[in-house]
User: Fold these one by one.
Assistant:
Number 1:
Amino acid sequence: MAHAHRHTSAHTPGRGAGTASGEAWTQARARTPAEAGGGALGRAAQRASGRRPPPAPRRARAGRLLTPWLFLLAPLALLITFTYAPIANMVAYSFTDWDGVSPELHYTGAENYAEIFTREDLFQVFWVSGYYLAASVIQIVAALYFATILSFRVRFRNFFKGVLFFPSLVNGVAIGFVFLYFFQDGGTFDTVLGLFGYHTDHAWLGTPVSANVSLAGVSIWRYLGMNFVLFLGAIQSVPAELYEAAELDGAGRWHQFRYIILPGIRPVLTLTVILSVSGSLSAFEIPYIMTGGATGTETFVIQTVKLAFQFNKTGLASAAAVVLLLIILLVTWVQRRLVPDDRVDLV
């Protein structure tokens, strides 16, 4: 009995020390998140208790604020250098009589703008843009038609996609020279017409009407593929379940186009119209290469280029460019007001 009592007494201190250290470890473990403030639990406990966490270091906060601007620094520098700075210079030159060569220029106020709006010959060239506006309507309708047809299962549809998109890959200067020989007297166009028994010695680029119609036709051929790709991508983004449900309900191709495709591609259609209108008002490349603005084919941009580099009236040309920019912005604003880009939910 004495031996047993001594054995128990000998081990009692050990058990007491182990129990004390375990209790201390448990208390420290329960106290650490709230009192030490370490980790997410500590921050949550501090917020629950009303105490604010310690502020982040100033260097870390400055780094978080500067990081997005560091990524935007290069594109913003390029945008300001090659877009906004030239526009600002153009607006400044529009109020001067600078000839583009002399180091001296004089402030003339709004004289250049008054000359643009009072000279009939400077604004008559906008009638030429009517041909390109009509061509843009044909181009949009044709691109939408082909995109709709080729979005369904059609034989050789990949081949036709390539044929329609190919003109968009060709350089505009090359297209101008190709069609310059295409429309010349006795050229390819006359030869093709002769195969169908129609022989003519008409100069297709010799009269204002036929020349502008021919140039507008070339613009349709060149830019049809780009609009076709935009429409095709928009149509293919429409969920396929909608077509399947429409077919189960007995809807034909026309009803699928009217009630599924058109609402689904409305944003892309709006964008295409805006680009087509602005491109019609600023047509330059094809008429400049094929006719140089002769025979009544001079557009507003060709006239602006001639004012700047042929007649050395850079100030007047800058004013004309500003007027064209404002007209395009106004047309875009009116179009957006008439046809707002509402979000369409098809499902």
Number 2:
Amino acid sequence: MDSMPVYFFHLKHSESIDEDLKGISFDTLDDARSNASDTLRDLVAENLRAAQHIDISGIEITDPSGSVVAMVSLEDAVLSRLTSEK
């Protein structure tokens, strides 16, 4: 039985990156992208509810070697949700 790939979500801010040191397993990269979009929308909602400045530009998804395999921008995360609700 093959194990699922592990992906790391590095949260990008305007001047820094919060690195994910644990990672999480997903069946596919598309599943990881979808989860990253959900995560971004949740973080923005939390910041809005707390009336905090939103200093998040996206999530950089890497594989265990550190290679960037995908980038989900805040704009992409919000727009993907809006277009899927039409």
Number 3:
Amino acid sequence: MTLLFALMTAYFATLLLNAAGTFTNNNIRKGFSALLNITSVVMFITVYGTARGVFVYLAVVALFGIILSFFNRNTTISANDIN
């Protein structure tokens, strides 16, 4: 159950930081995302231990970032893009 909450908080923190496909400039979102990230890393540490928990957290956040970048990309190709 703790692992599920850790994954959910990491996902929502990544969503808040990746607002509109770029790093957000909103300080409230940054602060809330930092709080969610700290909560998530603490939960991963309680599940996996200190060193392994931190690396699992980093891997999960990297995976969520890759997934969000993949689904937020612009895939339209126009005639002006071809040189």
